[in-house]
């Protein structure tokens, strides 16, 4: 099928799949395409992906598939988002020197976090960056690279991230959005919104800030498609390309979470939170970062293992079924189990945990198992454990006085209506759904329109149509209110044992 008229192209590279979409200028979806991929785990706590074989290969595949629907001359703009913040070192030719080191689920830099806190002082680092050093921070991972892979470090000429690498392959320009740049702490100053030399020696040693990309806002134009990129993708050289951002921020844009008080909850391989604020409210438990558009401020947070936990359970407990059938069976079984999973309680920290406990040595814990429990009980407990983790993050936001006016849910996990209901019951908050819940690539399409100069920020509201409101059920909420203190206690009471096991 072919269509006429101008279109926008959005691309998103996620943890386990990449998605692309073509839209009209008013947000109507013309075509979409998905490519699956995996991750590499070379050692405990290390999670990586190949920048060319996964990120760039997926982008090329998606673009070519989408261009079967339209003529390249119809594409007014392109925008990319990707998992982040990630760390990717490039040589002087712009070629990757090693696989990309992923975001907070990669916990390899614990020793470097400790060293930086000791050398520079936790309070000083927090005051400077408005965030505490955690596994989400890129500065410690840069130091890990310098200390553990000196040969790679010696050849490094650019330090970039996944979305920025895609933009570089399309335009030849190294540029990074402010939301991602804030996570390259302590090299970013949130007050000046510029790279800062203050802590360069501790992170970069004798190297300078010229290793880092230029900084810009997500919806600004990074450049245009080069002749080489055009040959590889089929895009018309000269097509505008947006600066882009991490997948979570693009997800927030995709559901219209761009006004003060809007909170996006992204149900993906991890669960991510983006709250739009009028002013920054720094706190060590969560992240204070730039927003999508010039001058915006976000309060952000992220759990370590949510959708990837349900995937693991489908792989391990329903391996006799194809993936989609496995999910269907597990969700159906979980729906028949009462709140509380008949006495089961699970900590979903299977890859350590990010916010609000920021504990890379945390691990999954299942308490209360009996011979009467089934895989349906375990799956229900996993969904509830994620719900308790979401509640923990929302409480941290409220402790800071954050004004959460509405909660919008998005991402692949929203297909499981049972899960959404559990989360609303656990947290006591209603969750809005939109008619288009395609996710980050849809938000990228809007960013493409902004970079091309054919859309204004207020045009986004015309793209967003409400679909459903998931509200808490009183009886279930009462049950979860009784269990939540036990969930919190389970972590504190098992922490020393779990930490010892993580070091074994």
UniProtKB/TrEMBL annotation:
<keyword id="KW-0418">Kinase</keyword>
<comment type="similarity">
    <text>Belongs to the FGGY kinase family.</text>
</comment>
<dbReference type="InterPro" id="IPR018483">
    <property type="entry name" value="Carb_kinase_FGGY_CS"/>
</dbReference>
<feature type="domain" description="Carbohydrate kinase FGGY N-terminal">
    <location>
        <begin position="8"/>
        <end position="252"/>
    </location>
</feature>
<dbReference type="InterPro" id="IPR018484">
    <property type="entry name" value="FGGY_N"/>
</dbReference>
<dbReference type="InterPro" id="IPR043129">
    <property type="entry name" value="ATPase_NBD"/>
</dbReference>
<dbReference type="Pfam" id="PF00370">
    <property type="entry name" value="FGGY_N"/>
</dbReference>
<keyword id="KW-0808">Transferase</keyword>
<dbReference type="InterPro" id="IPR050406">
    <property type="entry name" value="FGGY_Carb_Kinase"/>
</dbReference>
<protein>
    <submittedName>
        <fullName>Xylulokinase</fullName>
        <ecNumber>2.7.1.17</ecNumber>
    </submittedName>
</protein>
<feature type="domain" description="Carbohydrate kinase FGGY C-terminal">
    <location>
        <begin position="264"/>
        <end position="452"/>
    </location>
</feature>
<dbReference type="Pfam" id="PF02782">
    <property type="entry name" value="FGGY_C"/>
</dbReference>
<dbReference type="GO" id="GO:0004856">
    <property type="term" value="F:D-xylulokinase activity"/>
</dbReference>
<dbReference type="InterPro" id="IPR000577">
    <property type="entry name" value="Carb_kinase_FGGY"/>
</dbReference>
<dbReference type="InterPro" id="IPR018485">
    <property type="entry name" value="FGGY_C"/>
</dbReference>
């Amino acid at each position: 099928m072919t269509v006429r008229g101008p279109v926008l192209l959005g691309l998103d590279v996620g943890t386990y799949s990449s998605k692309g979409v073509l839209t009209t200028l008013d947000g109507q979806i013309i075509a979409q395409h998905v490519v699956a991929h995996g991750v590499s785990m070379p050692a405990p706590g290390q999670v990586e992906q190949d920048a060319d074989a996964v990120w760039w290969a997926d982008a090329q595949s998606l673009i070519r598939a989408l261009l079967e629907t339209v003529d390249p001359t119809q594409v007014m703009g392109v925008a990319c988002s990707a998992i982040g913040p990630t760390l990717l070192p490039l040589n002087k030719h712009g070629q990757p020197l090693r696989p990309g080191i992923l975001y907070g689920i990669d916990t390899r830099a614990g020793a470097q976090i400790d060293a930086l806190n000791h050398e520079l002082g936790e309070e000083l680092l927090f005051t400077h960056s408005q965030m505490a050093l955690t596994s989400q921070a890129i500065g410690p991972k840069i130091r890990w690279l310098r200390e553990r892979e000196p040969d790679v470090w010696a050849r490094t000429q650019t330090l970039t991230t996944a979305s920025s690498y895609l933009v570089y392959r399309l335009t030849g320009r190294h540029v990074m959005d402010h939301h991602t740049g804030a996570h390259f702490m302590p090299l970013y100053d949130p007050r000046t919104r510029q790279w800062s030399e203050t802590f360069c020696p501790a992170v970069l040693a004798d190297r300078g800030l010229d290793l880092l990309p230029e900084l810009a806002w997500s919806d600004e134009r990074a450049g245009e498609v080069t002749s080489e990129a055009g040959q590889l993708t089929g895009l018309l050289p000269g097509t505008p390309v947006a600066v882009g951002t991490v997948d979570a921020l693009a997800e927030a844009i995709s559901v219209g979470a761009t006004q003060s008080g809007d909170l996006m909850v992204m149900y993906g391989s991890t669960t991510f939170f983006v709250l739009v604020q009028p002013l920054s409210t720094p706190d060590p438990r969560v992240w204070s970062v730039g927003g999508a558009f010039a001058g915006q401020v976000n309060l952000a947070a992220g759990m370590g293992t949510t959708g990837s936990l349900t995937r693991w359970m489908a792989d391990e407990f329903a391996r006799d079924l194809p993936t989609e059938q496995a999910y269907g069976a597990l969700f159906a079984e979980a729906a028949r189990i009462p709140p509380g999973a008949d006495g089961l309680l699970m900590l979903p920290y299977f890859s350590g945990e990010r916010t609000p406990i920021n504990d890379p040595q945390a691990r999954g814990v299942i308490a209360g198992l009996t011979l009467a429990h089934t895989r349906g009980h375990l799956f229900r407990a996993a969904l509830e454990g994620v719900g308790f983790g979401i509640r923990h993050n929302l409480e941290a936001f409220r402790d800071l006085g954050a004004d959460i006016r509405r909660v919008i849910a998005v991402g692949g996990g929203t297909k499981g209506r049972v899960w959404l209901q559990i989360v609303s019951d656990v947290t006591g908050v209603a969750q809005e759904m939109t008619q288009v819940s395609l996710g980050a690539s849809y938000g990228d399409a809007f960013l493409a329109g902004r970079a091309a100069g054919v859309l204004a920020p207020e045009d986004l509201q015309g793209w967003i149509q409400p679909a459903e409101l998931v509200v808490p059920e009183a009886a279930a909420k009462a049950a979860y209110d009784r269990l939540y203190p036990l969930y919190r206690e389970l972590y504190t009471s098992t922490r020393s044992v779990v930490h010892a096991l993580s070091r074994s």
